Amino acid sequence: MDTTTLAALYIALLVGLSLLGLHVAAVMAMIGVAGALLTFGPAVVMNIGGLAWATSNDYLLVALPMFVLMGELLLRSGVTDRLYTALSAWVQGIPGGLLHSNIFASAIFAATSGSSVATAATIGSVAMPNMIERGYNERLALGSIAAGGTLGILIPPSINLMIYGAVTSTSVGRLFAAGIIPGVLMTLLFATVIVIWTRFDRRSAGRPLAPAPMRVRLALLVDLLPILFIFLVVMGSLYSGFATATEAAALGTVAATALAALRGRLTPAMLAEAFRSTIKVTGMVTLLIVAAFFVNFVLGLIGIPQAVAHWVDTVSTGPLMTLVLLIGLYLVLGCFMETLSMLITTLPIVTPIVLQQGIDPVWFGIFVVIMCELSLVTPPVGMNLFVVQGIRRPGSDVRDVVLGALPFVLCMLALVGLLIAAPVLATWLPDLLYG
After folding, report:
1. Which residue did the predictor score with more confidence, 265 or 20?
2. H or E stretch including 379?
3. How many other C-beta atoms can be found within 10 angstroms of the C-beta atom of residue 50?
4. Which of 149, 287, 407, 419 is the most buried (most CB within 10 A)?
């Protein structure tokens, strides 16, 4: 069997076994072990122990539990509730009103939590009661929350960008810098969708409220300071050269702990919940990474990445055609796989392809993360769709969430087009900061 056929079989098995309900890490491990046994024998399988230790011992990956814990502490300290209230007072005069609070609060919270699902769940639980009470169009409200949550894996610090950097040996600092401008652009595109929708259907914006007095709005700006403080601690220490990505994550966790203590929320029960959630997320991600690195190792020995790269080079007319093929691949996979699984399982195959085509690995990191973001809001397994559906009243139709998110999906595809047309949107800032 030639290596191109083996690559197709690998992807088919990966998707097929995942659809049966098996955990993606277990699927990758099974495929890796089977491939090693059939091709090279038991000796290669014995390398999995050393590979697991070397992978989990990566200094960069120590930042993962730090970023997760930082988000958990902020989530449980009540910072988000005040953030949403403060933003709501400032956007009441904009067409769409509180709908913009969903987007902007998601963008700001994403800049500290790094998790899309956590962002959607947190903002959704705060926003939906207000949306329903004010008579907003439910589909638009649900779509804005689900889409706003996707900003969590693009705006730095992003867990997915960090994992991309670890797997592909790309500078995390450059990746974080590259995500800022596309993240801001996506936020503005989402806000534009709301303005256009509410202009054509004024009833979708709910009952209008009188704008809050300026003195009230200015006073509420204080509630934005905790998030700004965390962002400055993490990103400021990283780009000033004071700390590495791992050390910046630790500093951010210390700052989040101090904020929780100042708000009187730092209790043993709260810490236990935060630690428990952090351990679950870190364990899941580490298992995925170890399995992915083992599959990487086996696929590399078989020669599958090189064969696929050669096939793409044969059928592709250049980098643009390659990116179009990858867009199609990720759109299909996004309907069946969740973000992190899709990111880790495809990188071993697609990374050699884009490097061979001369595509900037930092730019490609932003591209692939946006394509993986789409999986959060595309049925049938879009995580954010189900998170938002879970905060609604029982018996509600999930199609409302899907249809509400559709215009925002088109925005994300439009941003991908902008990045392809103008790569400088992702490369200018890291080049400015790092040379």
Report:
1. 265
2. none
3. 9
4. 149
Q: What is the pLDDT of residues 293-325, one digit of tens each?
A: 777 777 777 776 666 666 776 777 788 888 888
Residue 259: which of 221, 216, 223, 217 has the closest Cα? 223
Q: How far apart are CA 308 and CA 329, in angstroms?
A: 13
15 is written with which tokens? 């998707």
Mean pLDDT of the 287-293 span: 76
- Kindly calculate the radius of gyration of the chain based on its CA atoms and give it in whole angstroms: 22
433/178 Cα distance (integer angstroms): 10
Q: Is pLDDT of 140 > 70?
A: yes
> For the segment 63-104, what is each residue's pLDDT rounded down to a tens digit?
778 888 887 888 788 777 777 778 877 877 677 777 888 888
Amino acid (1-letter code) at residue 98: L
CA distances from 255 to 86, 122, 261, 266 (A): 21, 20, 10, 12
Spatial separation of the C-alpha atoms in residues 33 and 332, rounded to whole Å: 26
Report pTM.
0.78
**180-214 burial by CB neighbour count: b if 16+ within 10 A, else e?**
bbbbebbbebbbebbeebbeeeeebbbeeeeebee
